[in-house]
Design a protein that fits this description.
Elements (H helix, E strand, L loop, with lengths): L7 H12 L4 H22 L8 H21 L6 H9 L1 H23 L4 H31 L1
């Protein structure tokens, strides 16, 4: 079935399914280590408040989604060939669910744990989500271009 023959709903489902094949246990470990390190650095600075949790939570979420998404794009042992082929043909769409998840969770972390308003938290979370989308999209595009050779 060609891309033009699929509905938006089917494309969205494929994007979420392709995001689910990443190494999420490894990503959780990396996110926890990065978040704990950032929290330790903030604790040394001496500014003790609930707001000091927002930055480390953002770093942990970013690295969690980065490792999970990029690792999923670089994996070769995924079970479904059709899903892998769709992900290779649409690297930017395959990166969208992770960027969206990071955006939503980072907004919530910045809003509830930090001193930001809802709109301030949204604008703070846009940059990491955009960077994640760019990195994952470029990695997928490079993989796609190298696969055609």
């Amino acid at each position: 079935m060609a891309h033009d023959e699929m509905s938006r709903r089917e494309n969205r489902q494929l994007a979420v399914a392709s995001a689910a094949v990443g190494p999420w246990r490894t990503a959780a470990g990396v996110g926890a280590v990065v978040g704990a390190t950032a929290l330790g650095i903030d604790a040394i600075s001496g500014d003790w408040s609930l707001g000091m949790l927002a930055g480390p939570a953002g770093w942990a979420l970013f690295f969690f989604f980065l490792v999970g998404t990029v690792g999923g794009q670089l994996r070769r042992d995924t079970g479904d060939r059709r899903l892998r082929r769709w992900s290779n043909e649409h690297p930017w769409r395959a990166a969208l669910p992770a960027a969206g998840g990071l955006l939503v969770l980072d907004v919530l972390a910045q809003w509830f744990l930090g001193d930001s308003s809802l709109f301030g938290a949204f604008f703070l979370a846009l940059l990491p989500a955009g960077v994640l989308l760019a990195v994952a999209g470029v990695v997928g595009s490079v993989k796609q271009a190298r696969g055609k050779d």
